[in-house]
Amino acid sequence: MFWVFCAILTTLLFRAIWEKLLAMHGGPDEIATWAYLQSIIDLISGVGCTGLASGLSVLVAKTHDPMERNGLLVTCLVMALAVALPGLACIFLLLFIAPPALTSSVLYAPALMMLAALVGWMSINVGVLNAFLVGKRSYPHIFWLTLLGGMVTFIIVLLSPADWRLTNLVASQGLAGMVVLGWCVSRLARDGMAIYQPYIRQLRPYILPGLAIGILTPVSLLFIRLVVAQALSVQEVGMMHAAWRSSDWVTALAAGAFSIYWLPRMATANWQPDAFMVLKKSSLYVIVPSAIGLAALAVAGTNILSFLFNRQFVMPSTSFLLFLAGDFVRIISWLFLFHLYAHKSTRAIAIGELLSLPLFALFIWLARSHLSITIIGGLWLTTYIAYAVFNAVVALRLIRKLPMPVLRAI
Q: DSSP label at 409?
C-alpha cells in the first residue's frame, strides 16, 4: 500500500502545483478552461482505458506466465488505441461543423480542443501500462513512472511564459504516452510479442463498460460545464472544479487504492467467503479513512479552496459540505463498482453508469433556470446516492452467487 499511496500523492501534488500556477495567472476562468480541456482528454483516453485497462489488470493478476502477460499487454494497447480512434475523429469533425451553441461558449477554443483530443489518445498508452503494472502488483514501478511524468510536466509548465502555461500543460500530458508507445513497439520487435485471438476474446467484454464510462462520463462533464457556464457564469464552473479538486486529495486516494491495490485481490477471490472478506477489508482500509479525510476537509471549510488556488475561490459552506457528502457516497459506490469489474459484470457496469454523471447532467439541465452552486452540490449528493444503491444491490447479489468452498474428507 505504501507505493500505491506514494504514486497517488505524487500525482495530486504535481496537479495541485500546476493548477495553482494557472489560478495565479488567470483565476477561475483559466481553471474552468483547463477543466474543459481535461474533459476532452478524459473523453478520448477514457474510451480506450476505462474498461480495457481494468480488464487487463484482472487478467494479468490471474496468470503468472510472462509471455501471456506480455501478449495481453500488447493486445490491450492495440485494442484501446483502435477503440478510441473513432472518438478522436469525431472530436475533429465536430470542431469543423460545431453548432452555434458550442461556438458561442466562452470555453470554445478549437486549437486547444484539438490538442487535448490528441493528448487524450496518446495518454491511453500510459493508462494501459499502469494497468499492466497493477495486475503484476509492480507498485514501485508505478510510482517511479508517475514521478518521472510529473517532473517533466512540472518543469515544462514552470519554465513556460504565463500566457503559454495552459497550452504547454496540455501538450506535456501527451509526452509520456509517446514514450510508452515507443517502448512497447520496441519490446514488440525485440521479444516477438503478438496479438492472439484468445487475448482479444478475453479483453472484448471490457469494451462495453469502457465505452459507457469512457464516453458518458467526460461528455456529461462537458455538458454540465457548458450548462453551468451559460446558466450562471464561467466563474461558477471554476468553483465547481475547485470543489472537486480539493476533495480529490481523498477521492483519488480511495480510487487508487481500489483500482491499484484491491482490484487484483477482488479478481482472485473466487469463493463467496473470500469475496465477502475482501469487501470487508477494503471497506475498513478505504471507506473509513476516506470518511476521516473528508471530515477534515469539512472542518477546514472553503479555506482549503483559497489555499489550493487563490482568494478568488469562495464558496458557501453549505455548498462545499454537499459536495463533500456526495464525494463520500461516491467512494462507497466505487467499493461495489470494482467488485463488478473483478467478476466481469460488464453489462451491469454499463447500465449503472447512467446513474452517475449522466444522471447528474440531466438534473443540472432540468434545474438550469434555478441553478446555484448550492443546488448543484445537492444534486451531486442525490446522484451518487442512486448510483451507490444500484452498485451495492448488483454487487452483493453477484457475490452471493459465488460458490462456497468444498470441504474434502480426509
A: P
